[in-house]
Amino acid sequence: MIASIDVDPQKTFTPLCPSELPVIEGDKIGPALNKQAEKAVFRVLTKDAHPANAVWVVDTPEEMLTPLDHPNADLTWVSHAVPGTEGFEIIPSLPAVTEYDHVIWKGVEPNLHPYGACFHDIQEKLSTGLIEWLAIKGVTTILVGGLATDYCVKTTALQLKQHGHFDVWVNLEACRGIAEETTIAACLEMSEAGIHVIQSLDEFSTM
């Protein structure tokens, strides 16, 4: 059984919201995510849902990526993906939230800033239920796409592989990364963990 996961394909991570965390071409991956979903029986959506008063929020991009002495918020970021704002919305051409088979909202607590969709906390103690839901549905193979390759996509894929023991495929055609260097490093880390990192669905096979 195959599942397709759209990881945080939200306007906050695209040029549509330039004052948040814009990823180049982040708003262009909708068609590739839809194509990926055609290979699957189940389609899952994950969304960042962060309060504006989170402990990691800073005012300017220059203040970002500063390490924090906090167990479940490791770096500073500008405010993003706040429910009720444009940045919280998903990018054009994707289905309505209610058309997905399962949805995960993450980062709702002001002192938690998880990257992966499988745990609410960075320490990976508090499950979101995603792994359990996939297991109950009989899923064995997972296609992953979304934003951004070097953060939430990478962490979600690693969690699915390490904790769920699924056959995980990251479809780069349906992803975009924040920076080239960290994206290359993320792809290497995923590959070393036994995840299939592919350039397009032409390389996908369940055989």
UniProtKB/TrEMBL annotation:
Metal-binding is among the record's keywords: yes
Pfam family, one: Isochorismatase
Coiled-coil boundaries: none
Any one Gene Ontology molecular-function term assigned to this protein's record: nicotinamidase activity
Keywords attached to this entry: Hydrolase, Metal-binding, Pyridine nucleotide biosynthesis
Domain Isochorismatase-like: 52-199
Gene3D superfamilies tied to this protein: Isochorismatase-like
Keyword NAD recorded: no
Enzyme's top EC category: hydrolase
GO annotation, biological process: pyridine nucleotide biosynthetic process
Enzyme Commission no: 3.5.1.19
Pathway recorded for this protein: Cofactor biosynthesis; nicotinate biosynthesis; nicotinate from nicotinamide: step 1/1
Assigned protein family: Belongs to the isochorismatase family.
Protein name per the record: nicotinamidase
Organism of this sequence: Enterovibrio norvegicus
